[in-house]
Amino acid sequence: GAVVSQHPSRVICKSGTSVKIECRSLDFQATTMFWYRQFPKQSLMLMATSNEGSKATYEQGVEKDKFLINHASLTLSTLTVTSAHPEDSSFYICSASNPAGGFNEQFFGPGTRLTVL
Amino acid sequence: AQSVAQPEDQVNVAEGNPLTVKCTYSVSGNPYLFWYVQYPNRGLQFLLKYITGDNLVKGSYGFEAEFNKSQTSFHLKKPSALVSDSALYFCAVRDRSGGYNKLIFGAGTRLAVHP
User: Fold this and answer.
1) Which residues pair with B49 in a beta bridge?
2) Which among A16, A17, B8, B25 is most buried, taking Cβ atoms within 10 Å?
3) Distances in Å between the alpha carbon of A115 and those of A10, A87, A91, A111?
4) Chain A residues with CB inside 8 Å of B105's CB?
């Protein structure tokens, strides 16, 4: 149980375009989802935390207008990178949890590699 | 603020030998500590966690970790390493600031197990 999927697994886009990444909890309801980015050979940096039906809470230094997060249902959160630039190229990983439902740990998706040309 | 440190960028060990991946923590209050493993181009897989109770925590794939309050450490261990254990290992601590159970990760330690 506690499977989290991400789509797409890999995306290449041109500079200036927007890219949407989906994160789904497949077998449990995720009241809270987290979005991380990971640069090569570096650790995961938390970008934002989202609760279903409410606005995301962004970490300091993360541009909320650039990284749009929507958590419209208990099984789906999306991250949209708007007007992407090469410096946005990274590995984006989501995780999901539901402490009230017994899923206290964060369960991680497989990640999405974004390359902006 | 909660934080964890992984002092080693890389650990090399021969197959069959015991392995240790180090982690130290700095927290206010009781620590909730985790170990995750990441294989290339993959998300993180949960290995084990310490919340309370026995200082020796057993986890997945034969891994265990020892919580040491006096040394503020939570080192990951395995009695006999496998080549397939080669991966990137992250120590993490729970941070409740903002009302969410956020995870703060260490820099990661790359484990290389040689045949």
Assistant:
1) B34
2) B25
3) 8, 9, 9, 13
4) 43-44
Alpha helices in A20-115 (DSSP H): none
Nearest-Cα distance to chain B for A92, in Å, is 9
Helix or strand run (H / E) with residue A8: none
Q: How far is B86 from chain A (nearest CA, A)?
A: 15
Q: How confident is the model at residue B1 (pLDDT cuts 50, 70, 90)?
A: confident
For chain A (117 residues), the mean pLDDT of every run of 10, in chain order, is 89 96 92 90 88 88 94 92 95 87 78 95
> What residues contact residue A55 under an 8 Å CB cut-off, 6+ apart?
none
**What is the C-alpha to C-alpha distance for residues B93 and B73, in angstroms, rounded to an integer?**
12
Sorted by sequence, the CB contacts under 8 Å of residue A60 that are 6+ apart come out as none
Residue among B43, B49, B101 whose CB faces A93 most closely: B43
